[in-house]
Design brief:
The chain is mostly helical. Helices cover about 70% and strands about 0% of the residues.
Length: about 450
């Protein structure tokens, strides 16, 4: 049993990434507990207790991984656990809500909520722990009711819904927004300018129409893509769109993570905009929550997969071009040769098309990595400066966790980051930055050497 725990539990907590997908370890341990029900669950419980007691010294990424596995494990065993041994979490949450133990359990409960219904979770968790449960998932329909504060936007939202129900053309739907200003909601200056008030009405309305299910959301985004793009003309507007979406799903983080995928796949919002939003002051209160970093991972993986996919298509098009050239060379008469020459030209245009796509995708990917690293450095530096000015302890749990995230991003995506080493060293990780931040890059260089 101890050997099994060491093999599979240790593999799960391997850095930078486990050898096998996380679900593999979860499934194996669940199956083994069912097959060896007499003694393995007890041994596994001891291992969980051992890790739990060391949460405050563990790497943040490993705490995340351990929490996700534990939630999956509980969901397979009817949420049975010796909860009484963890009652200290409830007390700690009252005195120090940022303590690693209550924070860990909050993340576990949030993950469980992604695997079951809120009412079910509330019924099976002891009453003492209810204060650690997340808020019941729901939707923030900002314009569901007309109030003095939102009367103009709410009326336009109602008109837009009627326009959608009547399947009116794009110009008619946009016409229902005419009473709203083309700038900011509160009249402040926007640079660059975009119709903030109209954008909020459109996004809130489309999400309200599509929030019945994930498939409904997909259909709504696809159907009203032109409407969204008409009120989202620049990058600032796209960042604002993410703020509006997050506000709508503020108690449903699982769907917010899915929305990031949808916005990327429907090419509504560029990866760089999502990264800018994640690292914006607006999201700083959520900086220690796992769902935020899952959204960042989704964005980075999208960039990588897009480049890999285009590279594959480019290689296929090059093979196709070579085949066409060989066929042209072996043409038996001028007429056939002319036709095959046209096919060669078409194949060359296809190669050129994928070359351009790849250049754009790689440029976007590099931009994303540079923004991610730059924002990490800025936020960590700002924390150090403010702490020193206020004579506070610098190496707080928040600082250590954020620095762990930076390290993990560099190491996890080392294949891509290695390509930008010169740029990172020249522009970002300069000798002038704080030593505790520069240390992350120095360690990374040693890791890949």
């Amino acid at each position: 049993s101890s050997g099994i725990n060491a093999e599979y539990g240790g593999g799960l907590l391997e850095l930078p990434v486990p050898r096998y997908p996380e679900l593999f370890y979860g499934s194996i341990l669940v199956q083994l507990c069912q097959l060896m029900a007499d003694h393995l669950p007890q041994v596994l419980a001891q291992a969980v207790a051992y890790v739990y007691e060391r949460l405050d010294t563990m790497n943040t990424v490993l705490v995340d991984r351990f929490g996700s596995w534990f939630a999956y494990f509980l969901s397979n065993f009817k949420y049975h656990w010796t909860w009484s041994e963890w009652e200290e979490c409830v007390k700690l949450n009252k005195t120090d809500p940022n303590h690693p133990k209550p924070k860990f359990l909050k993340e576990v409960f949030l993950k469980l909520l992604w695997l079951t219904f809120y009412e079910k979770l509330k019924d099976v968790i002891p009453d003492e722990f209810v204060t650690l449960l997340p808020v019941k998932p729901g939707f923030n329909h900002k314009f569901a009711e007309i109030t003095p504060e939102n009367s103009l936007q709410a009326k336009c939202a109602k008109a837009l819904i009627e326009s959608i129900k009547n399947k009116e053309a794009l110009d008619m739907m946009l016409g229902s927004l005419d009473p709203l200003p083309d700038g900011a909601i509160d009249g402040r200056e926007l640079d660059p300018v975009y119709p903030e008030a109209k954008l909020e009405v459109v996004i809130q309305t489309i999400l309200r129409v599509g929030c019945k299910s994930i498939s409904h959301i997909s259909v709504a985004l696809n159907r009203f893509r032109d409407l969204i793009m008409a009120v989202m003309p620049n990058q600032d507007a796209k960042v604002s769109c993410l703020k509006i979406t997050f506000s709508f799903f503020k108690t449903n983080h699982q769907l917010m993570c899915i929305m990031i995928e949808k916005y990327l796949n429907f090419q509504l919002i560029e990866p760089s905009c999502i990264v800018s939003w994640i690292f914006s002051p607006y999201m700083l209160p959520h900086f220690d929550r796992l769902y935020l970093w899952q959204m960042l991972d989704t964005t980075i993986k999208f960039c990588i997969k897009r480049c890999d996919r285009i590279k594959l298509e480019l290689e296929k098009s090059k093979v196709k071009l070579n085949d066409k050239k060989e066929q042209e060379a072996g043409a038996p008469d001028p007429d056939i040769a002319e036709k095959r020459k046209q096919l060669v030209q078409a194949a060359e245009e296809e190669v050129d098309h994928y070359v351009k796509l790849l250049e754009d995708a790689e440029r976007s990917q590099k931009e994303v990595f540079l923004i991610v690293v730059q924002r990490f450095i800025m936020i960590l530096t700002d924390h150090i400066v403010r702490s020193e000015q206020e004579s506070r302890y610098t190496q707080t749990l928040w600082f250590r966790c954020t620095r762990d995230r930076l390290r993990q991003t560099l190491v996890k995506y080392r294949r891509e980051v290695k390509r930008y080493m010169v740029t990172l060293q020249t522009l970002l990780f300069t000798p002038e930055i704080e030593p505790k931040i520069l240390e992350c890059f120095t360690q990374f260089k040693g890791y890949i050497a």
